[in-house]
Write a structure and sequence with these properties.
Mean pLDDT of chain C: 91
Strand content of chain C: under 5%
Radius of gyration of chain C: 22 Å
Structural class of chain B: alpha+beta
Largest sheet of chain C: none
CATH superfamily of the largest domain in chain B: Nucleic acid-binding proteins
Order of helices and strands of chain C: HH
Number of strands of chain C: 0
CATH architecture of the largest domain in chain B: Beta Barrel
Helix content of chain B: 25-40%
Distance between the termini of chain C: 65 Å
Shape of chain B: extended
Helix content of chain C: over 70%
Strand content of chain B: 25-35%
Distance between the termini of chain B: 53 Å
Order of helices and strands of chain B: HHHEEEEEEH
Mean pLDDT of chain B: 85
Low-confidence stretches of chain B: none
CATH class of the largest domain in chain B: Mainly Beta
Structural class of chain C: mainly alpha
Number of strands of chain B: 6
Largest interface: A-B, 43 and 48 residues
Number of domains of chain C: 1
CATH topology of the largest domain in chain B: OB fold (Dihydrolipoamide Acetyltransferase, E2P)
Chains: A mainly alpha, B alpha+beta, C mainly alpha
Strand order of the largest sheet of chain B: 1-3-4-6-5
Oligomer: heterotrimer
């Protein structure tokens, strides 16, 4: 087990792993997205109260879900980088940030586009919306920190500490709608009793979440591979493996 | 794991624990301010501020909505099933505003106990279902009730 | 269901289609930008290698 992890923590093995994994994850994401979109726009019926505006849920909830899930990945990869000082975990942490930031941005904007017609406001300062906005600032802070510090090791270490401190925001986002009264409604899927959503509406939502997950894993690997090649550009394995690939000549 | 890594792992755990504790304490201290709205019970008990605007959240009592024919004036009774407060408002209501629905109004309390709102937002609960299912439930006598836990006592 | 009714989204067309459109644009950029950067990097490194060896 440990041997296996250490082996793939080496940049060269990571590069080969990504080459094998990323195309499959990408294809899975594509197929799931097509099915999920069909489900979201055609298969799922309109809501009894919210009508067709309810369909925003299929981009809003997966985005919000990813915004938190990616943050946990960033924090775990950051912590692993702090402890084991592996280049690969730093590259993964760094690659999580822009993806996480864009999903957080999407969760906020699609939520806003949903809130205006249903609640009657683009934005309210309730605990859920505010904590999700703080998540966006955490991502942006992380990205700013990475570009401000030239030394990669230092940047990774500072970023990891910021990411770990920010982890407390994740349960706050999730439980905000339970702990405090908010304008945002409570959890639909992730509560202990049965989800309070009709099965025909739930299935496309789960497919969309699965699609977003595959999409994220494919792209975080591709981004990390790019980081690794950049860092290891002068090493022997890059010269041999990456640059000798057939069909990629200039 | 060698001792150095163990030490780093401890530092990571320490950061998580420290920040977690600090945040919990801070949130406890600001508990009140994190609440988006007051319930009608709190307002009746006099727990809501009287000198400034605040928000009130509850369910629109069925049959209580009175609309003025000439202008956009509307009044309705807001309840958390224990206490109720009459709200008066002039303006456009959100699409989801209806009897039995949860809403949050921003405004202030008049001397006669009527809440004068300058903004009304609709709140919806976490239930989603197709119209046919909602109709079938209603026909079967299972009236779908709004289930938001923060607005019901 | 006819097309114009579908596009109309029960009167919520602006909100629904802006949400989906924005999601599509951002997800495409997240795919396209790093892929392009990687190709550019590999091309650049290859040129460097060629100039060294040749």
């Amino acid at each position: 087990m440990w041997e296996w992890i250490i082996k793939f923590a080496s940049p060269m093995h990571f590069y080969m792993l990504v080459n094998r994994l990323a195309p499959w994850l990408g294809r899975a994401a594509g197929v799931l997205l097509v099915i999920g979109l069909y489900g979201s726009l055609f298969y799922a019926p309109a809501d009894y109260q919210q009508g067709e505006s309810f369909r925003i849920i299929y981009v809003h909830v997966p985005s919000a879900w990813m915004s938190m899930f990616i943050y946990m990945n960033l924090a775990v990869a950051g912590a692993a980088g702090l402890i084991w000082k592996t280049k690969v975990s730093d590259a993964i942490a760094r690659s999580c940030a822009p993806l996480g930031a864009s999903f957080t941005f999407l969760a906020l904007t699609t939520g806003s586009l949903w809130g205006k017609p249903m609640w009657g406001a683009w934005w309210v300062w309730d605990a859920r919306l505010t904590s999700e906005l703080i998540l966006l600032f955490l991502y942006l802070g992380y990205i700013a920190l990475q570009s401000a510090i030239d030394d990669r090791r230092m940047a990774a270490r500072a970023g990891a500490i910021l990411a770990l401190v920010g982890v407390v925001n994740i349960p706050i986002i999730h439980y905000s709608v339970i702990w405090w009264n908010t304008l945002h409604q409570g959890p639909t899927i992730s509560k202990l009793d049965a989800p309070s959503i009709d099965t025909m509406m739930l299935i496309p939502l789960l497919i969309m979440i699965a699609a977003f997950m595959c999409y994220f894993f494919a792209l975080v690997l591709v981004r990390a591979r790019l980081e690794i090649i950049e860092q290891e550009r002068s090493s022997k394995w890059v010269q041999e493996l990456v640059l000798q690939q057939p069909g990629q000549s200039v | 794991m060698n001792p150095k890594r163990k030490k780093l792992l401890m530092i990571v755990l320490f950061i998580l624990l420290g920040v977690g504790t600090a945040t919990t304490l801070a949130l406890k201290a600001f508990q009140e301010n994190l609440m988006y709205f007051f319930s009608p019970s709190q307002v009746v008990k006099g727990e809501a501020p009287t000198n400034r605007n605040f928000r009130i959240g509850g369910l629109v009592t069925r049959g209580s909505v009175k609309r003025n024919q000439q202008d956009l004036k509307v009044s309705f009774v807001l309840t958390d099933t224990i206490s109720s407060v009459t709200v008066s408002y002039e303006g456009i209501l959100p699409d989801l505003f209806r009897e039995g629905q949860g809403i949050v109004a921003n405004g202030s309390l008049r001397a006669d106990g009527v809440f004068v709102a300058d903004e009304v937002l609709a709140k919806h609960d976490e239930n989603y279902m197709p119209t046919e299912v909602a109709d079938a439930l209603e026909k079967a006598g299972v009236k779908h009730e709004y289930t938001d836990k923060h607005q019901l006592k | 269901m006819n097309l114009s009714e579908f596009l109309h989204m029960g009167g919520y067309a602006f909100y629904v289609w802006t949400s989906y459109g924005l999601t599509a644009v951002i997800m495409f950029l997240n795919y396209w930008l790093p892929t392009r950067r990687e190709q550019q990097l590999i091309r650049k490194l290859k040129r460097l290698q060629d100039s060294k060896s040749g």
